[in-house]
Amino acid sequence: MEGKNVCGCSHHKVIPVLIVLFGALFFLGEIDVVSSGTVSLWWPIIVMAGGLTKLTAKACKCC
């Protein structure tokens, strides 16, 4: 993929990382590594972190 500009801005990596954490949290809850109470506590926090990241993201060269 030569010629395609790839942005190195860190805010583009936050949402994918939060999605992976979200999925990992539910997976660990399903296999009883973490309790359902832990999953119930953390999943809204992860979603809010993603929303706050998008809300406070400053404009970069690519967006």
Which outline best applies? elongated
Q: How large is the count of helical segments? A: 2
- Average per-residue pLDDT, rounded, comes to 82
Structural class: mainly alpha
Explain what this protein looks like in three dimensions.
By secondary structure, the protein is mostly helical. Helix content is 65%, strand content 0%. The chain has 2 helices and no strands. The chain starts with 10 loop residues before the first helix and ends in a 7-residue tail after the last helix. The model has no long low-confidence stretch (mean pLDDT 82).
Strand-helix topology:
Elements: H1 11-30, H2 36-56
Helix pairs in contact: 1-2
Quick description:
The chain is mainly alpha-helical and 63 residues long. It is built from two helices and no strands.
